[in-house]
Amino acid sequence: MTKTRIILSALLIGSLLTGTAKAQKSAQPVTPMKVGSATLNLGIGVGAEYDGRYYSNPFGTKIAAEWGLWQAGPGVITLGGEIGGSFSNNGDWEGHHDYKARTIVTAVRSAWHYGWKVKGLDTYGGLSAGLAFQHYGYSDHYDNNVLPYFGGFVGASYFFTQGFGVNAEAGYDITQFQIGVVFKLK
């Protein structure tokens, strides 16, 4: 957990410094997702439960990358990938006080992005599909599963500079709710 915080803090500070420098050199407005754009978002939040397994207030994390491919009316359809997981420790399940559940998900995702003509705002909704690798159990009894995975999400990003912003997502995806940072790569 401490390593994750250090890495996220370093990324945040670095992106703020480079994003501010880029914004000062360019007078272009900060815009949401467009055809040809690429974004990367990193988030943490409440993890999702899978396959009816008890997760005892899971912690979740997700990394997602998307590329703007098609204009669809006033918005853009993206395609990309995501990877992340939901993790819980020491849950109380069926009399076992040391129940643990961990699920790692790798998936493709697609979303429709729309900016509402507000400088820097990007809202979206989408679907994801992939595989979930699950490890769960208690004491010395653990099981592993590989499950098909399907998710749905809505989210919003706000870009402070052309290359950096904040992001929030909710739904039944790798996380149920997350907040994080978003980088516009292209």
TrEMBL record:
- Keyword Signal present in the record's keywords: the answer is yes
Per its record, how is this protein called by name? Outer membrane protein beta-barrel domain-containing protein
Q: Which UniProt keywords apply?
A: Signal
Annotated signal sequence is 1-23
